[in-house]
Amino acid sequence: MINANRAGAVLTVDLNVLVKNYAFLKGQIGNNTVCSAVIKSDAYGLGLEPVALRLAQSDCRSFFVALMDEAITLRSILEKHDKKAEIYLLNGVAEGAESDLDNYDITPVLNSLTEIERWSSHAKRNGRRDAILNVDTGMSRLGLDTRELDTFEANPEIADGIKITYVMSHLACADDRDAMKNREQRELFDNYRVRLGLQHASFANSAGILLGPEYHYDLVRPGAAIYGIQPITDEINKITQAINLKGKILQTRFVDSGGTVGYGATYQTIRKSRLATVAVGYGDGYFRTLGNRGFGYIGTNRVPVVGRVSMDLITFDITDVPEHEAAPGTMIELIGPHYTVNELAIDAGTIGYEILTGLGARYSRNYIGSS
Ligand SMILES: *Cc1c(COP(=O)(O)O)cnc(C)c1O
Q1: 89 and 113: one domain?
Q2: Does some domain include residue 18?
Q3: Are residues 220 and 336 in the same domain?
Q4: pLDDT band at residue 89, thresholds of 50, 70 and 90?
Q5: Mean predicted lDDT score pLDDT of the chain
Q6: Is pLDDT above 90 for 2?
Q7: Of 43, 180, 337, 353, whose CB has the highest number of CB atoms within 10 Å?
């Protein structure tokens, strides 16, 4: 644990907001559709253990992770707290992974014929095994392509011993409600489901849930929206932001007109200015692209980042803030109610997902709503 007083910044994660967002998403789907939670990449940077535990304490009973190590860690977290849940492994059955899948009771997503064969031969030796079958409908990342589907359709015995609980696919453009691709992928998905004779299906991520009931099927897989990222950015936001990041002012100084700030001297003051140096930098996941572009807030005063972002430091122009409101030790809001993850991501030229998963290891982390 990083000491809050000594840390350069304090990250607060409100776990109750995660539960609220999860409940909102659940409210969008029918009673017969399962709402899982995707908690890969350390629960999108917010912390696997506190997040998984809080969601498990609410009514979430199935989780998706990307890596085997995430799955194993998650299983031990759940067991430590006497919680039962389904754990799905998105990255599939690697060679030799069968015993880990068994020992930690992890259900794999099968992404290729090779993985189906691998899991089937394990199942034939050790008894029937569950799996999700992933089909590619337009991402070209993971899942059976059309050629593999042809082979599988002609040789269904490849999957002997496997109980396919869901067939799944993933949307490429769900964050754009009007994208033709959404319907095209759905039609292809339905076509594959019929060909494979598989009824239960999983298709939607966060944005997919908001596309409407025809995208929900039997199991939805939201991640981002649970963590407060708005799934479809040009619509009214119904998701509540879950984090708050405050950086500490180390020093303030006056700089005469014409003074330069930071590496490369990319910013020059045009008046006598007061600057604040804050103990956060790109080494903390504060994007370097925010140099001369990002903002912070002191109370309700918006203060611009001036100069480049350094590894451990950023500089704000605080000339317009009353002097007594911005002194060494004062905390500047870097992410919060005035400047959201989505806004910061736009200014950084990226998406909220990358901001959250990049949140630094040097922040002092503070969880609200953990038990
Ligand atoms: C990451 C991921 C999700 C979650 O997507 P969000 O946009 O964060 O809701 C769902 N399904 C798959 C296959 C994923 O890789």
Answers
A1: yes
A2: no
A3: no
A4: very high
A5: 96
A6: no
A7: 43
Assigned domain for 3 exists: no
* CA of residue 296 to ligand 1 center, whole Å: 30
φ, ψ of residue 334 in degrees (nearest 5): -100, -35
> Which residue blocks in 302-365 are alpha helix, DSSP H?
341-348, 352-357
Q: Do residues 326 and 302 touch, judged by C-beta distance below 8 A? A: no
Contact 60, 86 (CB under 8 A): no
pLDDT of residue 281: 98
Does the annotation mark 40 as catalytic?
yes
Q: What is the pLDDT of residue 5?
A: 83
pLDDT at 146: 94
CA 105 to CA 49: how far, in whole Å?
18
Compute, in angstroms, the gap from residue 369 CA to the centroid of ligand 1.
Answer: 25
* pTM (global) more than 0.70: yes
Q: Same structural domain for residues 64 and 203? A: yes
Q: Which atom of ligand 1 is nearest to the CA of 44?
A: 8
Max Cα distance, the chain (Å): 78
Name residues whose C-beta falls within 8 Å of residue 147's C-beta, 6 or more positions apart in sequence: none
Pocket of ligand 1 (CB under 6 A): 38, 40, 90, 170, 205-207, 221-225
Residues 163 and 193 in one domain: yes
CA of 72 to the centre of ligand 1 (A): 19
Going by the DSSP 8-state scheme, the letter that residue 73 receives in this structure is: H
Please, are residues 207 and 238 in contact by the beta-carbon 8 Å criterion? no
Would you say residue 233 has pLDDT above 90? no
The domain of 250 spans: 243-368
For ligand 1, mutation pick of 29, 35, 36, 170 (most atoms within 8 Å of CB): 170
Q: How far is the CA of 221 from the centre of ligand 1 (A)?
A: 6
pLDDT > 80? residue 371: no
Same-domain check for residues 81 and 126:
yes
Per annotation, catalytic residue among 40, 246, 297, 363: 40
Do residues 169 and 310 share a domain? no
Confidence class for position 214, pLDDT limits 50, 70, 90: very high
Cα Rg of the chain, angstroms:
24
Report the number of secondary-structure helices (H) and strands (E) in the chain. Answer: 11, 19
52 and 179 housed in the same domain: yes
Report the DSSP pairing between strands 219-220 and 34-35.
parallel
